[in-house]
């Protein structure tokens, strides 16, 4: 719902330039990530499956998204209430993760720390936009701080912390560097995120330094995908190709952010391109792997069949997402066409997979 509304409504209704990304983030990404964390945290901490009430933060995040959507269309002054709901959701989930961490048998997986850091970034981003409500003279800088803490901090850290484990799993290969990468690279990524966010708000030079700090760990991950495991990762079908495409898209976004800091690209192009370059290949790849697991109820044969169907033509989908994103980044609005074609194909496949006898 969030992706469709964010991509299509701006074409039909006059909205704020930031509205598409906000609709996608608030209605789709934030609840989705919180729900995914609720699923993965018991795995990372080797504790029992999440109890039903653990989904409350994700549902609260969805309520915050609905309230934000209402404010974007009808009364923008209501957005602080949506931010407050988001803060409650993020704080609640953070406390639940901390509780599970204390129950861990042995040491928790290093990916758990990335989830905690991502939620701290989300809390920081929401506090920034709340502060902007009370400091209207700082609206522009605080809004940019909010945007970058949410996208690179919350979404970026969550995605990379998950991808570093999910890529070998979906690709069916062993990657002994995954654990050490997660343990060693988080300080650089966090420092880079803070510098990019603060730099976007007040100092372009700091933002460029932050981009460099992000690029160094990302380069190590890309080396694994493009060189070490190239033949395993880049396939015509399967979740791993979409997920690897998301990493390539993130590299393009970082480079375009540097170009924006130098005044070579308008910021709106980069924020809109973030959706097809990174979010769509990421979500479609993760859904290809995880939906069959959730839908098949321990029926391994059905799980593999669903995964095969959802992953069919993933290389074509990823290519369309990335090409469309590049055109949008270049200011070509028709880049939305290949993005919508790829998204429609995937959504139709998902809907068909929900049929009992599919």
In short:
Keywords: Membrane, Transmembrane, Transmembrane helix. This is NnrS family protein. The protein is mostly helical.
Protein model, in words:
The chain crosses the membrane at residues 21-42, 54-74, 81-98, 113-135, 187-216, 237-261, 273-294, 314-330, 336-354. Keywords: Membrane, Transmembrane, Transmembrane helix. This is NnrS family protein. With 358 residues, the chain is mostly helical. It has a domain at 234-358. The protein contains 14 helices and no strands. It has helices spanning 2-12, 19-45, 56-73, 79-102, 111-134, 139-171, 178-202, 204-228, 230-233, 239-261, 267-295, 300-310, 314-329, 336-353. Helix 2 runs antiparallel to helix 3 (56-73), helix 6 (139-171) packs antiparallel against helix 10 and helix 11 runs antiparallel to helix 13. The radius of gyration is 19 Å and the shape is globular. The two termini are 23 Å apart.
């Amino acid at each position: 719902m969030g992706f469709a509304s964010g991509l299509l409504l701006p074409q039909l209704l006059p909205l704020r330039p930031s509205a598409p990304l906000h609709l996608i983030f608030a209605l789709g990404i934030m609840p989705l990530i919180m729900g995914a964390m609720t699923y993965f945290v018991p795995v990372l901490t080797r504790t029992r499956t999440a109890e039903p009430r653990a989904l409350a933060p994700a549902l609260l995040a969805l309520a915050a998204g609905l309230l934000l959507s209402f404010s974007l269309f009808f009364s923008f002054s209501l957005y602080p209430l949506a931010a407050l709901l988001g803060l409650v959701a993020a704080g609640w989930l953070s406390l639940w993760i901390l509780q599970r961490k204390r129950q861990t048998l042995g040491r928790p997986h290093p990916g758990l720390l990335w989830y905690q850091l991502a939620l701290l970034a989300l809390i920081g981003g929401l506090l920034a936009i709340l502060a902007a409500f009370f400091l209207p003279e700082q609206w522009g800088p605080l809004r940019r701080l909010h945007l970058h803490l949410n996208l690179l901090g919350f979404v970026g850290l969550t995605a990379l912390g998950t991808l570093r484990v999910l890529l070998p799993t979906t690709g069916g290969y062993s990657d002994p560097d995954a654990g050490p990468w997660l343990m060693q690279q988080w300080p650089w990524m966090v420092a880079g995120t803070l510098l990019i966010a603060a730099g976007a708000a007040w100092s372009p030079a700091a933002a460029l330094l932050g981009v460099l700090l992000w690029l160094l760990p990302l380069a190590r991950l890309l080396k694994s995908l493009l060189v070490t495991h190239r033949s395993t990762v880049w396939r015509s079908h399967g979740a791993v190709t979409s997920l690897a495409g998301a990493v390539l898209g993130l590299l393009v976004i970082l480079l375009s952010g540097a170009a924006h800091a130098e005044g070579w690209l308008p910021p709106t192009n980069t924020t809109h391109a973030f959706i097809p370059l990174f979010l769509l290949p990421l979500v479609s790849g993760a859904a290809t792997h995880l939906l069959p697991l959730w839908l098949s109820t321990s029926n391994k044969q059905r799980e593999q069949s669903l995964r095969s169907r959802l992953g069919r033509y993933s290389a074509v989908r990823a290519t369309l997402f990335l090409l469309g994103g590049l055109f949008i980044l270049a200011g070509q609005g028709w880049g939305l066409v290949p993005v919508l074609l790829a998204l429609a194909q995937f959504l139709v496949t998902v809907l068909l997979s929900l049929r009992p006898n599919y």
